[in-house]
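User: My collaborator sent over this chain with a note saying "see what the structure looks like." That's all I know about it. Can you take a look?
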Amino acid sequence: MKIFTSLLLSLLCLFPCFASAKKAAEIDISGNILIAGNEPHTYIVFKTETNEVYTLIAEKKDSFALRAAQGNIISIHGLFTAFEQDKPLPPESAGLGYLEVVSWELLNETKEIEKPEPVPEQNAKPHD
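Assistant: Without extra context I'll predict from the sequence alone. Here is the result:
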């Protein structure tokens, strides 16, 4: 009986942790890439045409290409997760929340951007 009571109390204590989990919302926005922070701790920020700011989360290959896209207007499709209102911002973050990049494209190209090369597979055999 004591084990059952302890287990029940443990589950009840953990319930608020699961209940407070936030779901990400899909959004499509356009704007500019900015780099924030100080070297070597910089991070990518996205500023929309309406001056909303998001901290971007992207795969490494997209991260390099997005950094190179500074000065261009781009469109991003991503998953938005808002920061909690009553808590301080996490380190290396700015704006309304995190925007995880699902896909992106240039809307106007004001400068040449190097697109990342596809990464060859590790087990690929060399061509003869």
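A starting point for your reply to your collaborator: The CA atoms of residues 68 and 113 lie 6 Å apart.
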